[in-house]
Amino acid sequence: MADRHGTDPVISVQNLRMSYGDSVVLDDVTFDAHQGEVLALLGPNGAGKSTTIEILEGFRHRSDGEVDVLGLDPARADETWRARLGIVQQSWRDHGRWGVRQLLVHLGAYYEPFSTAHRPRPMDVDELLETVGLAGHARQKAGSLSGGQRRRLDVAIGIVGRPDVLFLDEPTTGFDPQARRDFHDVVHRLADLEGTTILLTTHDLDEAEKLADRILILAGGRIVADGSAAELSRAVEGQTEVRWSRGGEHFVHAAADATRFVRELFEQHGSEIGDLEVRRSTLEDSYMTLVQRFESDPAAGRQPLEVVR
Questions:
Q1: Domain extents for the chain?
Q2: What's the CATH fold of domain 11-230?
Q3: Which residue has the higher pLDDT, 55 or 184?
Q4: Please, what sign has the CA dihedral across residues 182, 185, 189, 191?
Q5: Going by C-beta distance under 8 Å and a sequence separation of 6 or more, which residues neighbour residue 58?
Q6: Distance of alpha carbon 57 from alpha carbon 253, whole angstroms
Q7: Handedness of CA 27, 68, 46, 234 (dihedral sign)
């Protein structure tokens, strides 16, 4: 994907490899991410998603390859570099006796020495509480929060330092539909208004489709696809299903160019056309096809799927 911001990549991964003895977890993984871009890292359990994230965060040393995050190798980066990261793991179970606001003020104070004119740190805690929907629970003990409220606090902890790069591991686990929608708004605001680069893992493919600019699919330790949800859909399916009715009859047609087909349909039949519906394959359709293709023929995954941009 072309860099929409005209800058060097914020994250650059080249030929990343991770192995434990004879067991290869990651094999020649290569991708990059730019400022303000949201990437979703998808794949079945054991595909290497968590290992990839941990290497980028500097918590795990790789076996081979080159990794650059914010201009530094995570394996040798310092505290100034780490202050520019935000991490939301699947769950935090500590700090239960702290009040919600008290905890965020305390953690935010660690970021103050790393504040810059361009990016003041930390975020205003009261604004942050409003952002994640916890303003009404500011004085409540963290340990007494419900599962969904605790997850909102996890997100607040991850972004209190106003990160340049944010790692989200299954961020909306336990969220109700409204909380999930609010969280999506937070992600879009961080990416669009603050230029935060976001890499997330999720098993919720609908969420990935709504949030991500690009989708990376890992299978067998390799990236088997890299592109937007629409690009992956076109590359996998190639055609779009068009449904319509005319004169009481219902029709279905698979079109390589749905826009052109619909235009010609109206040119031919005009107002006789009713119940028009254009159905593109979903990210779930593309994902299942790609993973099943790899599992049935691992050699097919040696090269990532070619997408048309």
A1: 11-230
A2: Rossmann fold (3.40.50)
A3: 55
A4: positive
A5: 69, 74, 75, 77, 82
A6: 47
A7: negative
What does the pLDDT look like over 109-142, one tens digit per residue? 999 999 999 999 999 999 999 988 899 999 999 9
What is the SS3 string spanning 181-211? Answer: HHHHHHHHHHHHHHCCEEEEECCCHHHHHHH
Find where tokens 């793991």 sit.
Answer: 89
| 270: phi then psi, degrees, rounded to nearest 5 | 55, -130
Q: Which of 167, 215, 184 is nearest to 53 (CA)?
A: 167
> Which has the closest alpha carbon to 302: 213, 249, 223, 186?
223
Question: Which of 162, 157, 19, 11 is closest to 77 using CA atoms?
Answer: 11
Distance CA 142, CA 153 (A): 8
Rounded Cα–Cα distance for residues 277 and 301 (Å): 34
Residue 51 has pLDDT above 50, yes or no: yes
pLDDT score at 291: 82
Q: Which residues pair with 254 in a beta bridge?
A: 241
Closest Cα partner for 83 from 199, 7, 142, 163? 163
- How far is 58 from 87, CA to CA, in rounded Å? 12
pLDDT tens digits, 90-105: 666 677 889 999 999 9
Phi, psi of 183 (to 5 degrees): -65, -40
Task: Determine the average pLDDT of the residues in 23-30.
Answer: 93
Amino acid at the residue 166: L
